[in-house]
Amino acid sequence: MRLFFKLPRWFQIPTPVGSYNPDWAIVAGDPDKVYLIRETKSTGDVTKRRESENQKIRFGELHFKALSRNPADAVDFKDCVTLQEALNSLT
Fold this sequence. Notes:
Layout: E1 3-6, E2 24-27, E3 36-40, H1 51-66, E4 76-80, H2 83-88
Parallel strand pairs: 3-4
Antiparallel strand pairs: 1-2, 2-3
């Protein structure tokens, strides 16, 4: 891993259910693949989160997927519970 950083509040993605602000951006591995996005929530159980929160996360994931013309270059988006889990997901 090269670096990770908390995305600022102003980094927002418009979605049909309101603005979405992902938690972490990570630079790792291939120098041509810059962004890996990790969302951290208090639980990975979607039934214990607000539906609007789940929808924003899903729309955010679709947003990053749509940014790539080539699936191999797609932004790697994962929904994690802790930052440590997010970092462990890189290996």
